[in-house]
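Continuing the batch. This is chain 6 of the set; chains 1 through 5 are on the previous pages. Same settings as before, nothing changed between runs. Recording input and output for traceability.
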Amino acid sequence: MAKALRVLVVDDVAAARRHVLSVLAADDAVQVVGECSTGTDAVLQIRETAPDVVLLDISMPDLDGFGVIAAVGPERMPPCIFASAYSEFAVRAFEAYAVDYLLKPIEGHRMSEALRRVRALPLRVGEAASRLTGLVNDMAQNRSFPTALAVRCGTQFHVVRVSDVQWIAADGNYAILHAQRQRRIVGRSLSALENEVLDPARFVRVHKSAIVNIERVATVEPSPAGDATLVLVDGTRVPCSRRYRRRIEALLLFLS
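Output for chain 6:
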């Protein structure tokens, strides 16, 4: 009997995951190694379980499917079957990179076809990585994030380079940017900046009142309680609550 195909299911909608799991259960040659409700958890499970294939939802709120690929790294990412509610026309762009794509709601015969394609996959690891790198690059061109922010100060606007922002603190419905040892108050909430302005591959929520630039983290000090303290390159200490610690773990590869 052929070796079972080890599949990781990633979708933020519980009902969608249940449906996919029920479809996969009909295939005796499939072993589900895990299910994830967030892109962050997907990154961690991919690293921990090394599945043969990832059934990956494209649209997720914390870290979407493309963000998962970027965080894991195309050279380490297993083959992907994308799942999407987009129209077939919109999904054609993914065909060049994914093993297959499935339109929601996923039908059993389409799942079987996609799994057959995985089993017959002729691509070597390097070729698969090249295709995923192309996907990440294409998506980066279509998903632009600002490189600078103009922050009002009296009658003027001070320009802050996004790369200079070390961390951002909540201040009620406002936020405070900490950049080059200066504080700039922004008339946006922390959640608005996180969801609408900042690149999720660079800026990560680590506390209900803090976002950090992952490139400015120098040290991570975990505690037995499950939370942690992040020490930035300038010595600033930012708390990371247990709720958000997995996001840091997903964006940083911890080596022992």
